[in-house]
Specification:
By secondary structure, the protein is α/β, with parallel strands linked by helices. It contains nine helices and seven strands. Helix content is 42%, strand content 14%. Helix 1 packs parallel to helix 8, helix 3 runs parallel beside helix 7 and helix 8 crosses helix 9. The longest helix has 18 residues.
Length: 236
């Protein structure tokens, strides 16, 4: 999807739940039944219980690969910190995942952490330190924001010191770390599988969030979707 702005209100915020349902039904008249069924099915597996934070990723193809992994594991939000390196999804690596995943940009690590903590996230930095918690034992009793650092120097001191916890992936070889995109994929697999298997975690989107997501996805499928949906809104 297009880049999201923190604090920006959904264009559907003024509509009641019932009107959003009607709008979605109208929008789906413009797409195939198969595509609607796919949107309906995949939206149910989307989560914001786990989010990803990327701090100053140097190589855009690595950041784009993380977006692709987020889409594959149903993680909806990616938070990108651009202190020195700007981020723009690389289409050949992201394989269209930027159409389905929301990403937010921040100028500083402090700003990103403040926003996430206000939203109730426990910020967990990924580090290869000896005393860190293994990814398979990470406490998932509250929403988690997993933080991954740049390929060159890893996470900044600010990112490490501001985190609420630390986690690592078990390694048994001579190499000291995984590639950033591999690290993110392995971490997300472990965390989201345990999250979905738990009967105590309410990880799915609420009704309002779910409808907004499906409407946003429908706009990605429909030609000139944003303008078309806005026109439909005026008729609801």
């Amino acid at each position: 999807m297009p880049e999201r702005i923190i604090g920006e209100q959904s264009i559907f915020a003024s509509l009641s739940i019932e009107k959003r349902r009607k709008l979605y039904d109208k929008a789906c008249e413009l797409i195939s039944e198969n595509k609607r069924n796919l949107i309906d099915r995949l939206a149910l597996n989307r989560t914001r219980y786990v989010s990803v934070v990327l701090e100053d990723i140097y190589q855009s193809h690595n950041a784009s690969a993380v977006l692709r992994s987020c889409d594959c594991f149903g993680v909806q939000d990616v938070h990108v910190i651009e202190k020195n390196n700007s981020f723009s999804p690389a289409g050949d690596v992201a394989v269209g995942s930027s159409k389905w995943v929301d990403y937010y940009k921040y100028a500083t690590t402090k700003q990103a952490y403040e926003v996430l903590k206000k939203r109730g996230y426990r910020i967990v930095a990924t580090l290869p330190h000896e005393n860190d918690t293994m990814i398979g034992q990470l406490d998932l009793s509250q929403p988690i924001a997993l933080v991954f650092g740049t390929e060159l120097t890893g996470l900044s001191d600010e990112a490490i010191e501001g985190a609420d916890g630390y986690v690592k992936i078990p390694m048994y070889g001579f190499t000291e770390s995984f590639n950033i995109s591999v690290c993110a994929a392995l971490s997300l697999f472990s965390v989201t599988e345990r999250m979905r298997a738990s009967k105590d975690i309410d990880w799915q989107l609420g009704v309002s969030e779910l409808l907004d997501l499906k409407l946003n996805w429908a706009m990605q499928v429909i030609k000139d979707g944003q303008n078309v949906v806005k026109c439909l809104m005026e008729k609801i």
